[in-house]
Design goal:
alpha+beta; 3-stranded antiparallel sheet; 12 strands; single chain; about 350 residues
Length: about 350
Amino acid sequence: MLPVAWDTEGPQRVLAVGHNISSQANKVRAPRRQETLEMAEVKVKKETNLSDPAEVENRIKELCQQFPHGITDQVIQNDMPHLEPQQRAMAINKLLSLGQLDLLRNSAGLLYRLKDSQSTSKMKGSDNQEKLVYQIIEDAGNKGIWSRDIRFKSNLPLTEINKILKNLESKKLIKAVKSVAASKKKVYMLYNLQPDRSVTGGAWYSDQDFESEFVEVLNQQCFKFLQSKAEAARDSKQSPMVQRNSSFATSHEVWKYICELGISKVDLSMDDIETILNTLIYDGKVEMTVIAAKEGTVGSVDGQMKLYRGVNAIIQPTGLVKTPCGLCPVFDDCHEGGEISPSTCIYMSEWLDF
């Protein structure tokens, strides 16, 4: 028999039969010993025995391992073109019934994905509909998913989805979290996940309520720290340039000061503190500059570091600027009887009450 070498990427293509080597390959000459070693390393791919259901199932699982995000019927058909549709359906249904595959749906149609062993143990005893809903919620991650979107992806009736969600919640496999984006709607995510900041609102929200007093306290303390640093720089009696440079503080220094005060019940991040410092910049109480910094320096990002310092207004603003209208970004669109009107402006009402 003539030796046959199969292409490792395509199951149906023959590279070389006997001595029928292409002209291009004849141009490459190497020592016989090297050719012998290379031929020994060639792996001949064994063709799947389509008459054996077990081999077909194993091949489908191998394809799922190659494509972790899932495979379609077309992928299986391309890999095993001579497999009858009935055989393919029987193999997939068996893998689904054994809980070894997940059945998903996307814009291209149905997807088959190899099931995680941990998920399999958690969903033991659940029916296919419950497994499908659990998989959709798992794919949503810590941002969660609304019941409406679950219904759209699963094509199940709303009553059935509500029943499944209650059952999964009772098993403590999923949990419902209220979103600050829509307080009357709940998103569902896996029970052990920490909700994303876009869902909870981060440190500034408590039970979907904005903590305005907490934000105001942080504003005052951050400004107080920058003011004290500026006063210490002025009292140093050094040159004006040295005083100015030493009056700046990094966001990491401000964050460390706030953490040491212990005024926050939640863990604040550097981004949280920078958000507060930005509000002080908008109020004209703080200015920011950016300098180059070495990689790995505390508080630096992409070779840059933000510095903040408290400033005092040179002159007091005029009375017109103090009114809400003086700084209103939609001043030109404001008129009586319109969507933006002085009579319905909450900022004007608050200013008049003050």
